[in-house]
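Good day; I would like, with your permission, to put a structural problem before you. I would ask you to consider whether the tokens describe a fold that such a sequence might reasonably adopt. The full record is reproduced below for your convenience:
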Amino acid sequence: MGGCAALAALWLACSQAAIAHVTVSNPWVRGTIEGQTATGAYMTLASDTAVRLIAVSSPVAARCSVHEMTMSANVMRMRSLDSLPLAAGSRVQMREGSGEHVMLEGLAHPLQAGETVPLKLTFIDSQGKQQIVQVQAPVHPLGAP
């Protein structure tokens, strides 16, 4: 029986080493006003191996997606991304007003400062292994960084 336990522990250690270690820091969601049905979520993502963020969901929104914002000739353009790559050992900063962010659309109710928004982020590595990261993002008041 001791041999089985040792094999099980070895298998568990090896299987965990094969899964990317993704971290999410400083998550937050921009507050909304009555009647507003969409907002943005921001955070910093890091991974020790190359992965892609392939899905986001939240119980407070009908739809969640990763968007990219760019400026061209003083015109802001936003487009939905199928996935967001994270290179091994690098950070992706999702910041308000530039680059990538998460759009929360079809909000169930206005989001007020002091609330916390649960987010489920799904990542996939080059071998097709998925990792789900649960995040609790505080709501910042509208207009606050």
